């Protein structure tokens, strides 16, 4: 259920499970807070059960639409510093009490934004790990081959593999939540990931050319199905903007579509691959056009993502 997997909704549960370790001197406050929250149910207290850190173990379930507010209040008690707060998704909940909590909580769980969950997920997906670099390189090489063969099916395959949605989401969330470290991590992943993928694609293009599998004439030939990749226009910005909206909604909503990550990649990985192939063959005008396409789409995605998150935050606070 991570961003880079492209498989199904990330958080499709109406009820979330909280496991809290509270210092003994604050347990009474935690219990009152939980008792007063209409979105909370199934409260269980184990006095003195926790050993590391020491304290009382308190568990409960909370309707998704009330989770972020509850987490903010718990953090206000210093539990993340002196104890522990853990949040888990509940796959199946058969409980009238849980149903009642969902009805009482304001808004709809499918529209709720659990900011802490989003921050942690995007931070994980923007790590400069070996897997991230491999996925980026593989996606860009596949897209590069698709460009030379003028085969949209290969472009789609590259879009499925591309992992760049994680860093883009981290950048947007970091800007909205004012988490400088999260924004820096997203920028670093993009700034390193794309050049690595493009460099590998240039080398792969040279190797395939030496093996006689591809050639410069394939790049210069008429490519009606993929030529749009290196010819940016007003629609390029629009597609990137719409992709950013869809991406952020899929990140925050409990009802995400299965192909949102592919939609994000349609505006990024193919452009990077086309630029790399054009550089490999010294076709500078096409490389420049592809680079412009890439930067336009990245900017549009970030602007749309930030605006979507801001609108969601304002709307949810009013609700």
Automatic annotation (TrEMBL):
InterPro entries: DUF389. Keywords: Membrane, Transmembrane, Transmembrane helix. The keyword Nucleotide-binding does not apply. The keyword Membrane applies. The chain crosses the membrane at residues 128-149, 155-176, 188-214, 234-252, 259-281, 287-311. It holds the Pfam family DUF389. This is DUF389 domain-containing protein. It comes from Paractinoplanes durhamensis.
């Amino acid at each position: 259920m991570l961003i880079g997997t492209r498989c199904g909704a990330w958080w499709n549960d109406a009820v979330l499970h909280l496991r809290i370790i509270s210092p003994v001197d604050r347990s009474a406050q935690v219990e009152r807070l939980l008792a007063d929250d209409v979105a909370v149910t199934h409260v269980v207290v184990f006095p003195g059960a926790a050993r590391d850190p020491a304290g009382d173990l308190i568990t409960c379930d909370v309707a998704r639409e009330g989770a972020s507010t509850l987490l903010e209040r718990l953090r206000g008690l210093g539990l993340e510093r002196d104890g522990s707060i853990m949040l888990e998704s509940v796959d199946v909940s058969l409980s009238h009490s849980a149903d009642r909590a969902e009805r009482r909580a304001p808004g709809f769980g499918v529209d709720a934004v659990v900011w802490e969950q989003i921050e942690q997920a995007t931070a994980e997906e923007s790590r400069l790990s070996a897997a991230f670099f491999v996925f980026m390189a593989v996606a860009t090489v596949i897209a590069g081959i698709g460009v030379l063969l003028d085969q949209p099916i290969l472009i789609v395959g590259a879009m499925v593999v591309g992992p760049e949605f994680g860093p883009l989401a981290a950048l947007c969330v970091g800007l909205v939540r004012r988490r400088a470290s999260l924004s820096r991590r997203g920028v670093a992943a993009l700034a390193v990931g794309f050049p690595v993928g493009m460099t590998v694609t240039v080398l792969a293009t040279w190797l395939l050319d030496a093996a006689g599998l591809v050639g410069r004439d394939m790049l210069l030939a008429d490519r009606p199905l993929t030529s749009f990749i290196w010819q940016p226009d007003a629609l390029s910005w629009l597609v990137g903007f719409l992709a950013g909206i869809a991406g952020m909604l899929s990140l925050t909503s409990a009802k995400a579509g299965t192909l949102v990550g592919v939609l994000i990649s349609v505006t990024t990985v193919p452009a990077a691959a086309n630029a790399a192939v054009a550089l490999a063959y010294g076709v500078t005008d096409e490389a420049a056009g592809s680079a412009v396409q890439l930067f336009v789409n990245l900017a549009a995605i970030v602007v749309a993502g930030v605006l979507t998150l801001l609108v969601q935050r304002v709307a949810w606070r009013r609700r």
